[in-house]
Protein backbone atom coordinates (compact mmCIF):
# COMPACT_ATOMS: atom_id res chain seq x y z
CA UNK A 1 0.00 0.00 0.00
CA UNK A 2 0.94 3.64 -0.28
CA UNK A 3 2.99 4.81 2.65
CA UNK A 4 2.99 8.35 3.87
CA UNK A 5 3.53 10.47 6.89
CA UNK A 6 0.79 10.52 9.48
CA UNK A 7 -1.69 13.35 9.29
CA UNK A 8 -2.24 15.81 12.05
CA UNK A 9 -5.31 15.53 14.32
CA UNK A 10 -6.80 18.67 12.82
CA UNK A 11 -6.47 17.27 9.31
CA UNK A 12 -8.01 13.97 10.34
CA UNK A 13 -10.99 15.75 11.86
CA UNK A 14 -11.62 17.56 8.58
CA UNK A 15 -12.39 14.29 6.78
CA UNK A 16 -15.66 12.54 7.73
CA UNK A 17 -15.45 8.86 8.70
CA UNK A 18 -17.20 7.66 5.57
CA UNK A 19 -14.57 9.45 3.49
CA UNK A 20 -11.88 7.38 5.15
CA UNK A 21 -13.86 4.28 4.19
CA UNK A 22 -13.90 5.45 0.57
CA UNK A 23 -10.16 6.06 0.60
CA UNK A 24 -9.56 2.63 2.11
CA UNK A 25 -11.80 0.99 -0.50
CA UNK A 26 -9.99 2.88 -3.28
CA UNK A 27 -6.60 1.72 -2.13
CA UNK A 28 -7.81 -1.87 -1.83
CA UNK A 29 -9.40 -1.81 -5.25
CA UNK A 30 -6.37 -0.31 -6.96
CA UNK A 31 -3.41 -1.79 -5.16
CA UNK A 32 -4.62 -4.81 -3.26
CA UNK A 33 -1.55 -6.38 -1.70
CA UNK A 34 0.80 -4.38 -3.85
CA UNK A 35 2.62 -1.78 -1.79
CA UNK A 36 4.11 0.02 -4.77
CA UNK A 37 1.38 1.72 -6.71
CA UNK A 38 1.21 5.09 -8.38
CA UNK A 39 -2.24 6.67 -8.09
CA UNK A 40 -1.22 9.45 -10.44
CA UNK A 41 -1.74 6.99 -13.31
CA UNK A 42 -5.11 5.52 -14.30
CA UNK A 43 -5.83 2.09 -12.87
CA UNK A 44 -8.64 0.01 -14.43
CA UNK A 45 -11.16 -1.60 -12.16
CA UNK A 46 -10.17 -5.15 -11.37
CA UNK A 47 -13.76 -6.39 -11.56
CA UNK A 48 -14.07 -5.24 -15.20
CA UNK A 49 -10.62 -6.11 -16.51
CA UNK A 50 -11.76 -9.33 -18.17
CA UNK A 51 -14.64 -7.70 -20.07
CA UNK A 52 -13.14 -4.25 -20.57
CA UNK A 53 -12.54 -4.79 -24.30
CA UNK A 54 -16.13 -5.94 -24.83
CA UNK A 55 -17.48 -2.95 -22.89
CA UNK A 56 -15.37 -0.53 -24.92
CA UNK A 57 -16.58 -2.11 -28.17
CA UNK A 58 -20.25 -1.97 -27.10
CA UNK A 59 -20.01 1.65 -26.00
CA UNK A 60 -17.98 2.54 -29.11
CA UNK A 61 -20.64 1.15 -31.45
CA UNK A 62 -23.33 2.96 -29.48
CA UNK A 63 -21.43 6.23 -29.65
CA UNK A 64 -20.45 6.15 -33.32
CA UNK A 65 -23.79 4.92 -34.64
CA UNK A 66 -25.76 7.26 -32.39
CA UNK A 67 -23.81 10.35 -33.40
CA UNK A 68 -23.77 9.58 -37.13
CA UNK A 69 -27.46 8.62 -37.34
CA UNK A 70 -28.59 11.68 -35.39
CA UNK A 71 -26.48 13.95 -37.57
CA UNK A 72 -28.21 12.49 -40.65
CA UNK A 73 -31.58 12.96 -38.95
CA UNK A 74 -30.75 16.59 -38.20
CA UNK A 75 -29.55 17.21 -41.77
CA UNK A 76 -32.66 15.54 -43.21
CA UNK A 77 -34.98 17.81 -41.24
CA UNK A 78 -33.00 20.90 -42.26
CA UNK A 79 -32.67 19.86 -45.91
CA UNK A 80 -36.38 19.26 -46.46
CA UNK A 81 -37.44 22.12 -44.16
CA UNK A 82 -39.46 19.86 -41.96
CA UNK A 83 -38.68 22.09 -39.00
CA UNK A 84 -41.61 24.30 -40.03
CA UNK A 85 -43.79 21.67 -38.38
CA UNK A 86 -43.32 21.91 -34.58
CA UNK A 87 -43.36 18.11 -34.33
CA UNK A 88 -40.20 17.83 -36.41
CA UNK A 89 -38.66 20.76 -34.54
CA UNK A 90 -38.99 18.82 -31.31
CA UNK A 91 -37.53 15.74 -32.98
CA UNK A 92 -34.60 17.88 -34.14
CA UNK A 93 -34.06 19.15 -30.59
CA UNK A 94 -33.98 15.54 -29.43
CA UNK A 95 -31.37 14.78 -32.09
CA UNK A 96 -29.21 17.64 -30.80
CA UNK A 97 -29.50 16.21 -27.29
CA UNK A 98 -28.50 12.75 -28.52
CA UNK A 99 -25.49 14.16 -30.36
CA UNK A 100 -24.44 15.89 -27.13
CA UNK A 101 -24.75 12.56 -25.32
CA UNK A 102 -22.62 10.72 -27.86
CA UNK A 103 -19.89 13.33 -28.27
CA UNK A 104 -19.40 14.46 -24.66
CA UNK A 105 -21.29 12.39 -22.10
CA UNK A 106 -20.72 8.81 -23.24
CA UNK A 107 -16.89 8.91 -23.61
CA UNK A 108 -16.41 10.54 -20.19
CA UNK A 109 -18.92 8.20 -18.57
CA UNK A 110 -17.18 5.16 -20.05
CA UNK A 111 -13.84 6.38 -18.70
CA UNK A 112 -15.26 6.85 -15.22
CA UNK A 113 -16.89 3.41 -15.27
CA UNK A 114 -13.67 1.62 -16.24
CA UNK A 115 -11.07 3.54 -14.21
CA UNK A 116 -10.87 3.06 -10.45
CA UNK A 117 -9.09 6.26 -9.40
CA UNK A 118 -10.15 9.78 -10.34
CA UNK A 119 -7.93 11.42 -12.96
CA UNK A 120 -10.15 14.15 -14.44
CA UNK A 121 -9.59 17.00 -12.01
CA UNK A 122 -11.84 19.05 -9.76
CA UNK A 123 -13.79 20.80 -12.52
CA UNK A 124 -15.15 17.62 -14.10
CA UNK A 125 -15.73 16.13 -10.67
CA UNK A 126 -18.15 18.96 -9.97
CA UNK A 127 -19.84 19.24 -13.35
CA UNK A 128 -19.84 15.65 -14.67
CA UNK A 129 -23.15 14.68 -12.97
CA UNK A 130 -24.67 17.83 -14.45
CA UNK A 131 -23.40 16.98 -17.93
CA UNK A 132 -24.77 13.45 -17.61
CA UNK A 133 -28.27 14.50 -16.56
CA UNK A 134 -28.89 17.62 -18.66
CA UNK A 135 -29.45 15.79 -22.00
CA UNK A 136 -31.63 13.18 -20.28
CA UNK A 137 -33.87 15.89 -18.85
CA UNK A 138 -33.92 17.73 -22.18
CA UNK A 139 -35.16 14.64 -23.99
CA UNK A 140 -37.94 14.00 -21.48
CA UNK A 141 -39.09 17.64 -21.46
CA UNK A 142 -39.00 17.70 -25.26
CA UNK A 143 -41.36 14.74 -25.38
CA UNK A 144 -43.70 16.54 -22.96
CA UNK A 145 -43.81 19.60 -25.23
CA UNK A 146 -44.30 17.40 -28.29
CA UNK A 147 -47.22 15.50 -26.74
CA UNK A 148 -48.80 18.72 -25.49
CA UNK A 149 -48.50 20.40 -28.89
CA UNK A 150 -50.05 17.45 -30.72
CA UNK A 151 -52.94 17.27 -28.25
CA UNK A 152 -53.71 20.96 -28.81
CA UNK A 153 -53.38 20.59 -32.57
CA UNK A 154 -55.70 17.59 -32.83
CA UNK A 155 -58.30 19.28 -30.65
CA UNK A 156 -58.32 22.43 -32.74
CA UNK A 157 -56.26 22.38 -35.97
CA UNK A 158 -56.89 26.09 -36.50
CA UNK A 159 -55.35 27.02 -33.16
CA UNK A 160 -51.75 28.29 -33.29
CA UNK A 161 -49.12 25.66 -32.49
CA UNK A 162 -46.63 25.91 -29.67
CA UNK A 163 -43.57 28.04 -30.53
CA UNK A 164 -41.06 25.27 -31.08
CA UNK A 165 -37.93 27.42 -30.81
CA UNK A 166 -39.01 28.96 -27.50
CA UNK A 167 -39.98 25.55 -26.11
CA UNK A 168 -36.66 23.95 -27.09
CA UNK A 169 -34.69 26.75 -25.45
CA UNK A 170 -36.93 26.35 -22.41
CA UNK A 171 -36.14 22.64 -22.17
CA UNK A 172 -32.40 23.32 -21.98
CA UNK A 173 -32.75 26.13 -19.45
CA UNK A 174 -35.10 24.09 -17.28
CA UNK A 175 -32.72 21.12 -17.37
CA UNK A 176 -29.81 23.30 -16.29
CA UNK A 177 -31.86 24.67 -13.39
CA UNK A 178 -32.80 21.17 -12.26
CA UNK A 179 -29.18 20.03 -11.94
CA UNK A 180 -27.81 23.19 -10.29
CA UNK A 181 -27.89 21.65 -6.75
CA UNK A 182 -25.55 18.84 -7.83
CA UNK A 183 -22.26 20.62 -6.94
CA UNK A 184 -23.46 20.98 -3.35
CA UNK A 185 -23.33 17.21 -2.87
CA UNK A 186 -20.11 16.51 -4.80
CA UNK A 187 -16.86 16.31 -2.83
CA UNK A 188 -13.43 16.55 -4.42
CA UNK A 189 -10.64 15.67 -1.97
CA UNK A 190 -6.97 16.19 -2.74
CA UNK A 191 -5.12 13.46 -0.89
CA UNK A 192 -1.85 15.35 -1.20
CA UNK A 193 -3.07 17.90 1.37
CA UNK A 194 -3.70 15.18 3.97
CA UNK A 195 -0.79 12.81 3.34
CA UNK A 196 2.71 14.22 3.20
CA UNK A 197 3.94 11.84 0.58
CA UNK A 198 5.34 12.46 -2.91
CA UNK A 199 3.38 9.46 -4.17
CA UNK A 200 0.05 11.15 -3.38
CA UNK A 201 0.89 14.58 -4.69
CA UNK A 202 -1.83 15.50 -7.19
CA UNK A 203 -3.90 12.45 -6.34
CA UNK A 204 -7.57 13.11 -5.60
CA UNK A 205 -10.88 11.34 -5.18
CA UNK A 206 -14.35 12.39 -6.29
CA UNK A 207 -17.33 11.14 -4.31
CA UNK A 208 -21.00 11.96 -3.77
CA UNK A 209 -22.02 12.90 -0.26
CA UNK A 210 -25.21 10.88 0.26
CA UNK A 211 -26.63 13.00 3.05
CA UNK A 212 -30.29 12.99 4.04
CA UNK A 213 -31.12 16.06 1.98
CA UNK A 214 -29.30 14.51 -0.99
CA UNK A 215 -31.63 11.53 -0.82
CA UNK A 216 -34.67 13.78 -0.82
CA UNK A 217 -33.25 15.70 -3.75
CA UNK A 218 -32.70 12.52 -5.79
CA UNK A 219 -36.24 11.33 -5.05
CA UNK A 220 -37.57 14.70 -6.15
CA UNK A 221 -35.51 14.53 -9.35
CA UNK A 222 -37.03 11.12 -10.09
CA UNK A 223 -40.55 12.47 -9.70
CA UNK A 224 -39.99 15.75 -11.54
CA UNK A 225 -37.89 14.49 -14.45
CA UNK A 226 -39.19 10.95 -14.99
CA UNK A 227 -42.44 9.90 -13.30
CA UNK A 228 -44.21 13.24 -13.64
CA UNK A 229 -43.33 13.86 -17.30
CA UNK A 230 -44.31 10.31 -18.24
CA UNK A 231 -47.69 10.76 -16.57
CA UNK A 232 -48.24 14.02 -18.45
CA UNK A 233 -47.15 12.46 -21.76
CA UNK A 234 -49.51 9.52 -21.23
CA UNK A 235 -52.40 11.88 -20.55
CA UNK A 236 -51.69 13.97 -23.66
CA UNK A 237 -51.37 10.88 -25.86
CA UNK A 238 -54.66 9.46 -24.57
CA UNK A 239 -56.40 12.76 -25.32
CA UNK A 240 -54.82 12.87 -28.78
CA UNK A 241 -55.98 9.31 -29.51
CA UNK A 242 -59.53 10.24 -28.53
CA UNK A 243 -59.42 13.24 -30.82
CA UNK A 244 -58.21 11.08 -33.70
CA UNK A 245 -61.02 8.62 -33.05
CA UNK A 246 -63.47 11.53 -33.17
CA UNK A 247 -62.05 12.88 -36.42
CA UNK A 248 -62.07 9.38 -37.90
CA UNK A 249 -65.87 9.29 -37.64
CA UNK A 250 -67.71 9.30 -41.01
CA UNK A 251 -68.53 12.65 -42.54
CA UNK A 252 -71.94 14.09 -41.62
CA UNK A 253 -74.14 14.73 -44.64
CA UNK A 254 -77.07 17.13 -44.43
CA UNK A 255 -79.57 16.70 -47.27
CA UNK A 256 -82.05 19.42 -47.99
CA UNK A 257 -84.70 19.05 -50.68
CA UNK A 258 -86.42 22.07 -52.10
CA UNK A 259 -89.06 21.79 -54.80
CA UNK A 260 -92.70 22.46 -55.47
CA UNK A 261 -93.63 18.78 -55.85
CA UNK A 262 -91.69 17.53 -52.85
CA UNK A 263 -92.79 20.42 -50.64
CA UNK A 264 -96.44 19.63 -51.33
CA UNK A 265 -95.99 15.97 -50.38
CA UNK A 266 -94.02 16.61 -47.16
CA UNK A 267 -95.86 16.49 -43.88
CA UNK A 268 -94.91 16.44 -40.23
CA UNK A 269 -93.84 12.78 -40.42
CA UNK A 270 -91.84 13.02 -43.65
CA UNK A 271 -88.13 12.29 -43.72
CA UNK A 272 -85.22 12.92 -45.99
CA UNK A 273 -85.44 9.37 -47.25
CA UNK A 274 -89.00 9.98 -48.44
CA UNK A 275 -87.86 13.01 -50.42
CA UNK A 276 -85.19 10.96 -52.12
CA UNK A 277 -87.64 8.21 -53.02
CA UNK A 278 -90.21 10.71 -54.31
CA UNK A 279 -87.80 12.15 -56.83
CA UNK A 280 -86.03 8.92 -57.68
CA UNK A 281 -88.27 8.11 -60.60
CA UNK A 282 -87.72 11.48 -62.25
CA UNK A 283 -83.98 11.10 -62.05
CA UNK A 284 -84.10 7.55 -63.41
CA UNK A 285 -85.91 8.69 -66.55
CA UNK A 286 -83.25 11.17 -67.44
CA UNK A 287 -79.53 10.86 -67.85
CA UNK A 288 -77.15 12.58 -65.50
CA UNK A 289 -75.90 14.94 -68.16
CA UNK A 290 -79.07 15.31 -70.24
CA UNK A 291 -80.76 18.71 -70.73
CA UNK A 292 -83.78 17.49 -68.81
CA UNK A 293 -81.70 16.97 -65.70
CA UNK A 294 -80.53 20.58 -65.80
CA UNK A 295 -84.09 21.86 -66.27
CA UNK A 296 -85.32 19.82 -63.33
CA UNK A 297 -82.84 21.59 -61.06
CA UNK A 298 -85.20 24.55 -60.98
CA UNK A 299 -88.06 22.38 -59.72
CA UNK A 300 -86.09 20.15 -57.37
CA UNK A 301 -82.85 21.63 -56.20
CA UNK A 302 -80.64 19.52 -53.94
CA UNK A 303 -77.98 20.82 -51.62
CA UNK A 304 -75.37 18.71 -49.86
CA UNK A 305 -73.36 20.02 -47.00
CA UNK A 306 -70.46 17.76 -46.10
CA UNK A 307 -68.49 18.57 -43.00
CA UNK A 308 -65.19 16.88 -43.57
CA UNK A 309 -62.32 16.80 -41.12
CA UNK A 310 -59.56 19.30 -41.71
CA UNK A 311 -57.00 16.69 -40.65
CA UNK A 312 -55.39 13.91 -42.61
CA UNK A 313 -56.54 11.28 -40.12
CA UNK A 314 -54.47 8.42 -41.53
CA UNK A 315 -51.32 10.52 -41.53
CA UNK A 316 -51.94 11.72 -37.98
CA UNK A 317 -52.60 8.18 -36.80
CA UNK A 318 -49.33 7.05 -38.32
CA UNK A 319 -47.49 9.94 -36.67
CA UNK A 320 -49.14 9.20 -33.35
CA UNK A 321 -48.16 5.54 -33.52
CA UNK A 322 -44.49 6.20 -34.18
CA UNK A 323 -44.20 9.03 -31.65
CA UNK A 324 -45.81 6.82 -29.02
CA UNK A 325 -43.34 4.06 -29.85
CA UNK A 326 -40.37 6.41 -29.56
CA UNK A 327 -41.46 7.75 -26.17
CA UNK A 328 -42.28 4.27 -24.84
CA UNK A 329 -38.91 2.93 -25.98
CA UNK A 330 -37.08 5.80 -24.30
CA UNK A 331 -39.00 5.38 -21.02
CA UNK A 332 -38.32 1.63 -20.89
CA UNK A 333 -34.60 2.02 -21.61
CA UNK A 334 -34.18 4.75 -18.99
CA UNK A 335 -36.20 3.00 -16.27
CA UNK A 336 -33.45 0.60 -14.99
CA UNK A 337 -30.97 3.44 -14.46
CA UNK A 338 -33.54 5.56 -12.63
CA UNK A 339 -34.45 2.65 -10.34
CA UNK A 340 -30.76 1.96 -9.75
CA UNK A 341 -30.24 5.55 -8.65
CA UNK A 342 -33.03 5.26 -6.11
CA UNK A 343 -31.76 1.90 -4.88
CA UNK A 344 -28.27 3.36 -4.54
CA UNK A 345 -29.60 5.67 -1.84
CA UNK A 346 -30.49 2.70 0.37
CA UNK A 347 -27.71 0.28 -0.55
CA UNK A 348 -24.15 0.69 0.67
CA UNK A 349 -21.37 -0.08 -1.77
CA UNK A 350 -18.52 -1.99 -0.17
CA UNK A 351 -15.39 -3.68 -1.43
CA UNK A 352 -17.22 -7.03 -1.45
CA UNK A 353 -20.20 -5.95 -3.57
CA UNK A 354 -18.49 -3.31 -5.68
CA UNK A 355 -18.17 -5.71 -8.62
CA UNK A 356 -21.96 -6.17 -8.71
CA UNK A 357 -22.42 -2.40 -8.73
CA UNK A 358 -19.89 -2.05 -11.54
CA UNK A 359 -21.56 -4.59 -13.81
CA UNK A 360 -25.02 -3.19 -13.09
CA UNK A 361 -24.01 0.38 -13.80
CA UNK A 362 -22.25 -0.54 -17.04
CA UNK A 363 -25.33 -2.37 -18.31
CA UNK A 364 -27.92 0.19 -17.17
CA UNK A 365 -25.99 3.18 -18.51
CA UNK A 366 -25.66 1.44 -21.88
CA UNK A 367 -29.42 0.82 -21.92
CA UNK A 368 -30.14 4.43 -20.96
CA UNK A 369 -28.17 5.70 -23.96
CA UNK A 370 -29.50 3.05 -26.37
CA UNK A 371 -32.34 5.35 -27.61
CA UNK A 372 -29.70 7.53 -29.28
CA UNK A 373 -29.46 4.73 -31.87
CA UNK A 374 -33.06 3.50 -31.87
CA UNK A 375 -34.75 6.89 -32.31
CA UNK A 376 -33.20 7.64 -35.76
CA UNK A 377 -34.03 4.10 -36.91
CA UNK A 378 -37.67 4.54 -35.87
CA UNK A 379 -37.72 7.94 -37.58
CA UNK A 380 -36.59 6.29 -40.83
CA UNK A 381 -39.40 3.73 -40.54
CA UNK A 382 -41.80 6.60 -39.89
CA UNK A 383 -40.77 8.44 -43.06
CA UNK A 384 -40.59 5.41 -45.35
CA UNK A 385 -43.49 4.68 -47.65
CA UNK A 386 -45.42 1.43 -47.48
CA UNK A 387 -44.03 0.21 -50.79
CA UNK A 388 -40.46 0.81 -49.60
CA UNK A 389 -41.15 -1.13 -46.41
CA UNK A 390 -42.59 -4.05 -48.33
CA UNK A 391 -39.63 -4.03 -50.69
CA UNK A 392 -37.27 -4.01 -47.70
CA UNK A 393 -39.15 -6.89 -46.11
CA UNK A 394 -38.82 -8.80 -49.36
CA UNK A 395 -35.06 -8.25 -49.42
CA UNK A 396 -34.62 -9.53 -45.87
CA UNK A 397 -37.31 -12.21 -46.21
CA UNK A 398 -39.37 -10.73 -43.40
CA UNK A 399 -42.62 -11.20 -45.26
CA UNK A 400 -44.47 -14.50 -44.96
CA UNK A 401 -45.55 -14.38 -48.58
CA UNK A 402 -43.06 -14.65 -51.41
CA UNK A 403 -42.82 -11.88 -53.94
CA UNK A 404 -44.31 -13.02 -57.21
CA UNK A 405 -45.74 -11.32 -60.28
CA UNK A 406 -48.63 -12.86 -62.18
CA UNK A 407 -51.28 -11.74 -64.63
CA UNK A 408 -54.84 -12.76 -63.90
CA UNK A 409 -58.14 -12.08 -65.65
CA UNK A 410 -61.33 -11.08 -63.89
CA UNK A 411 -64.29 -12.79 -65.54
CA UNK A 412 -67.70 -11.18 -65.19
CA UNK A 413 -71.09 -12.85 -64.87
CA UNK A 414 -71.59 -12.61 -68.63
CA UNK A 415 -68.40 -14.62 -69.19
CA UNK A 416 -66.45 -11.75 -70.76
CA UNK A 417 -63.03 -10.69 -69.54
CA UNK A 418 -63.36 -7.47 -67.59
CA UNK A 419 -59.81 -6.33 -66.98
CA UNK A 420 -56.32 -7.60 -66.48
CA UNK A 421 -54.13 -6.57 -63.61
CA UNK A 422 -51.15 -7.81 -61.68
CA UNK A 423 -51.26 -9.21 -58.19
CA UNK A 424 -48.17 -8.03 -56.40
CA UNK A 425 -48.11 -9.65 -53.00
CA UNK A 426 -47.46 -7.06 -50.34
CA UNK A 427 -48.88 -4.22 -52.40
CA UNK A 428 -52.45 -3.75 -51.21
CA UNK A 429 -52.97 -0.71 -53.39
CA UNK A 430 -52.66 -2.59 -56.66
CA UNK A 431 -54.85 -5.40 -55.36
CA UNK A 432 -57.62 -2.99 -54.37
CA UNK A 433 -57.41 -1.17 -57.68
CA UNK A 434 -57.73 -4.45 -59.52
CA UNK A 435 -60.74 -5.49 -57.48
CA UNK A 436 -62.38 -2.13 -58.01
CA UNK A 437 -61.84 -2.41 -61.76
CA UNK A 438 -63.41 -5.87 -61.72
CA UNK A 439 -66.38 -4.62 -59.76
CA UNK A 440 -66.97 -1.77 -62.16
CA UNK A 441 -66.76 -4.06 -65.17
CA UNK A 442 -69.19 -6.47 -63.56
CA UNK A 443 -71.68 -3.70 -63.00
CA UNK A 444 -71.32 -2.45 -66.54
CA UNK A 445 -71.84 -5.90 -68.00
CA UNK A 446 -74.87 -6.56 -65.85
CA UNK A 447 -76.37 -3.26 -66.89
CA UNK A 448 -75.72 -3.97 -70.50
CA UNK A 449 -77.24 -7.41 -70.21
UniProtKB/TrEMBL annotation:
InterPro entries: GPCR_Rhodpsn, GPCR_Rhodpsn_7TM
Keywords: G-protein coupled receptor, Membrane, Receptor, Transducer, Transmembrane, Transmembrane helix
Main localization of the protein described in the UniProt heading: membrane
PROSITE patterns named among the record's database cross-references: G_PROTEIN_RECEP_F1_2
UniProt keyword Nucleotide-binding present: no
One cellular component (GO) term of this entry: plasma membrane
GO molecular function: neuropeptide receptor activity
Subcellular location: Membrane
Transmembrane regions: 51-78, 99-119, 134-151, 163-185, 217-238, 322-343, 363-382
The keyword Membrane belongs to this UniProt entry's keyword annotation: yes
Topology in membrane: Multi-pass membrane protein
Domain G-protein coupled receptors family 1 profile positions: 69-379
Family recorded in the similarity comment: Belongs to the G-protein coupled receptor 1 family.
Annotated protein name in UniProt: Orexin receptor type 1
Taxonomic source organism: Rhynchophorus ferrugineus
